[in-house]
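In response to a reviewer's request, we include the raw inputs and outputs for one of the modeled complexes. The two entities were modeled together in a single run.
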Amino acid sequence: MSTERGRIQISGFDTDGIEDQDSLDAWSESEADELESRWRKIVSSIVRDRLALGGFAVVAVMSLAALLSQPISVGGFTIQPFSIVPYDPTQTGVGARYAAPSLSHPMGTDRLGRDLFSRVVTGGRYSISIGLIVTALAATFGVIYGSISGYFGGRVDEVLMRILDVVFAFPGLVLALILVALFGGGFWPLVGAFALVGWATYARIIRGEILKVKQNEYVMAAKALGARDRSVIFRHVIPNAIAPVIVQATLSIGTVVIGVAALGFLGLGFDPGTPEWGTILDAESDTLATGAGGTWDWWATVFPGLMIFLFVMSMNIIGDAVNDALDAQVDDIGGGG
Amino acid sequence: MSKSTKSRSSSLDRRRLLQGIAAAGAIGVAGCIGNGDDEDDEILDVSAALERNEVDLDEIQEGGRLEFAIPRNSISDYDQSQSTAAEDSVVFEAVYDGLTTVDSEGEYLPWMAAEHEAEEANDVSVTDYEDYMVEMEADDADDGFPFFDLEDDNNLVLMQHPDDLPAEEGDTVRVLTREEAGDAVADGVYGTRVEGRLHEGIEFHNGDELTAEDIVRSYDRYVGSDNEGQMFDTFMYAEALDGDDGYTYALYSQEPDAAAFVEMNPYVFPAEHADVPAGELDPRDDEDLVPIGTGPYQVEEFEEGSQLLLSRNENYWVENVGLENIPWWDGPDEFPESPVIDEINIRFVDESVQRSAALEDGDVDIAYELPSDARNSFYESDDYVVSATEAFGFKFMQFPVEETDTGGAFAEREIRQAVSALIPRQQIVDLIEQGWGDPARVPFPAPSADLATTADDYDDLFDEEWAYPVEPDVEQAEQLIEESSLEAPVEITIQTNADDDERIDKMQLAVDQLNQSGLFEAELETPAALGDWTPELYTDGARHEAAENNAAAVIGLAGTPEPHGFPETIHDPDNWNGCCNFFFPEGALPEDFIDLLRSCRFATDVAEDEDTRRERYDELWPQLTDLSANTIVDYSLNTGTASNDVVGFNVHPQTQAILSYAVYAPADEQIMYLDRD
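The model returned the following C-alpha cells for the whole complex.
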C-alpha cells in the first residue's frame, strides 16, 4: 500500500479494463435503442396530442387518397390498380362549365367542365410526393455535407460553409423559380430545383449540432480507439445530432408543398392541365374577376387552396409535435426545402 | 412545467382554430351541395353586343380624360416603323393617320389621301429587272441565300437574279437595289402603280405640312426595321410627282399586286424623323424623339410602364380640310371634324383579372381582352356596355412537315388532316369564348370574304367538302390514320404560349379530344414559361426539332381585311422565319401550291379584275385545306367593354384600330364622348 503512495495512476492502458468495458457494437446497439425510443417518443407525442393526431390523420387520408386516386403503372406494369376518383382528372366536359358542388361533382367543375374533386384528390400526388422526395434528398445530402463540415472543422468547414453561404444568399423560392425557368418544369425538374435549394438548411443545422456532439467523450473515445472517421460520423455523431434535422424535415415538407404550389400558380412547374394544386389555382384565378354583378365560382379556387392549406397546416402541426417530442427547439420553418 | 403549460395553451388555440375552419368549411360545403346544376352550358346570346351604339350628335359633350386600359405592361416599341406589337398600334393609330382608312365592313377608303388608286398592272417578273440589276459580292450567305453589305443605310436589295441563286459568301450576284429601282420605274418596268393625291393643309403635330416628300422618305425608315421584309416584299419605289413640296405621289410594286392599294402604305413620318434609324424613334432613349404624326392625338406625357398620356391635336387636319372635302363623306353636317375627348390616358394593365377589376372599380373607362365570365357579367350589367364585332384575328395550328428519322409524323398529310378533323372547334368557341367567337369552317374569316370567294354567302361555304368540321370527326380521322404509314396512337405534342390562358384552355380541349379518340397520344406544352416563346420558333433548328418531336405550334394572329394575308402569312416560303411561317422554307410545301397561292395576289389578271381574283381563291381553298400544313382553329370577335361614362363606344374589326376607331371614325360616323354626370 505504502509503495503506491505518491504515484500517478494512469488508467486506460490496462487491457483487462478494456475487456471489461462494453464493446463498440454494444454501444451502437444502445444508440439504436435510443433511436427507437426517439421514434416511440414521436409516436407517443402525436398520439397524446389530439391536434397532432388530427394533423396526422389529415396527411394520411390525403396521401392515401392521392395514392389510390388513379392507377399507377411503371414500365407498362400496373402497380396500383385502384381508381377511387369518379372521373379522369384531365378529361374535359364531364360536367357543365363551372357547375357548383353537387352530389355528382362534390367539389364542382372547372372552366373546362372537369371534375374538381377528381383533380384535387389526384393533385395530392404531385405536391405530396414532391414534398417527400425533396425532403428526403435534401436532408440526406444536407446531413452528409453538414456532418463533414462540422466534424472535420478547420479549412474544410470554412470552405464548405462559404459555399453554403452562397446558397443562402439567394431566396430559396426565387432560386427554385430560376432553376425551373432555365431547365423547364415537370416532376423531376421541380424535385431537383427544390432539393438544390433545400439541402442548405439541413447542412447548417446538423453542422451546429455536430460541433456540440463531437466534443462529447464517447466521440473522443471512439476516435482514440481507432475508429475510422466515416464510422465515427455515421455511427456516433449523426445519430446523436439528428433530432433537429427530423423536426426540420417534418416542417419543411409543408414548405416544399407551398413552394411547388407557388411555382404552379406562377405558371411554372407543370404543364397546364396538370391537376397539381398550384397549377389549378393559376388556371382558375380568372374566376376572382367576376365583372359587374357577376357571381363568384368559389369552388374553383377554394378547394385546391383548401387542400394546400390543410396539408401544410397538418404537416406543421405534426412538426410541432415532433419538435416537442424530441425537444429539438427548431423554430425555423422558413428555410425552404 | 412552464413548457407543459405552454404546450397545452398552444394546443387549445390550434384546436379551436381547426374546429372553426372545419365548421366553416362544412357549412360552406353543406350550403352549396345540391345547388349545383349539371345542366348543359348555356351559350350567351351576344347579338346585342354586335349592334352599334349610336350617338345623338346634339348630346355630344366635349372634353374629359378617357382612361383606356391595354393588355400590356408597357409600350413595346414607340417606333412604328419597327414595332410589331399589336398593342403598340392600338395606341399609335391615334397618333398617326394613314393614307387610307378601313371602315367596320372592312372596306378601304382614302383618308389623308384625297385620291389613292391602283392604276395599272404590268406582267413583270424578277428577270424583267435584269437590265437594271447591278452585280454585288455576297458578304455572307445562309442556306444559299446571300446577304450584302450596302454602303447607304437607306439602301437594300429588293430582288436577286434567280439564275445566280443559290449563292455562297463571295459569289457575285445580280441584284436590284432601291437605288436602281427608279431607273426601272422610269422605263415602265414595275408591277402595279398606285397614284394618289394628299389633301392640302394636313399638318404634323410639330406644325410641318404633310407633302408627298414625307411619304417618299417614310419608306427609308423601314430599311433595317423588323417590318422591312413585310414592306419591301411588295413595295419597290415611291416618287413625288409634283416635286417634293407637292401633294401627288406614285407608289410602285415589284410585281403585279392585287393588294398594292393597301399593302404599300407606310406610317407617314415628318421630315425631322426621316433620318432617324429604325427602332431609335423612342422617347425612352431620347426625350426629343417623341412620335409625331398627323393623327387626332399627340403624345403629351409618358412614363415607362406606368403612363402614356395622349392629348387632342388642336390642329387636326380634318378641321382644316373639312369633312365635306373627303370624297366619300355623306354624313350629317353637324358631325364633328375631330374627336371630342381631350385626353386619353393609356393604362398598362397586363393581367385580364386586373383590367376587369379596374373597370369594375371605375379606375378605367374602357378595357378589352377581359376574362370571358367577367365579360359576360359586364354584358349583362346595365352599368356597362360590351361592344363586339366579327374580327380578323384567328388561332391556327402549324405542323412541321419536315421528314425526320425520329418523329416526323406531320410529314404525312393524313396525320395533319386527322388532327385537323379532331379539333373540337365548336366546343372551343362555346366553352372558352362563351360564344364571343366563331369556329373556323374555312381558312378566312367572314369580314374578309368579299374578295376571297365567288360565293354570295359566306355561310354557303360551310357545306363545301373542303370546309373544316366544327365537331370532331373521329370516323374521318380513323380512316386517315389507316391510310397513313403510322399506327394509332400517334404521339404528338401541341405547343402554345404560356402567357395566354384562353389559348391554353382551347388547346387543352383539343388535346383531350385527340386523346379521347384513341388515335393520338397528345400532350400540351407551354415552352418558355417566363419568356416569349414565339421567337424560339424562328431560331436555327427549331423547325427540325419540332418535326422530330411531332410538335405542332399554335399561335394567334391579327389579320386584315385584305384576304391574302390569311394564307400567305402562314404558308409562303418568302415569309419563312418572318411572322408567321415557322416551318416552311422554300421547298417544304409543293411548288404548284405556292404558285397558286401567289397567283391569287401577284398576277396581272387578279390585279386588274376582282372577279378573277375571287375565282383564283376558289381554287386555292380546297388545296389549302387538303394540304393541311396549317389548320385554323377559330376566328375572334373583337370585343371591348366600357363603363356607362362612355357614350357611343364601338369596336373595330382590327384590334389595332380599337382605340382610334372608337374616338373618331367618320367612315362609320363613329364618335365617342364622355358623360361623367
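As requested, we also summarize the result in words. The domain at 34-72+79-326 of chain A is CATH 1.10.3720.10 (MetI-like fold). Chain A has one domain: 34-72+79-326.
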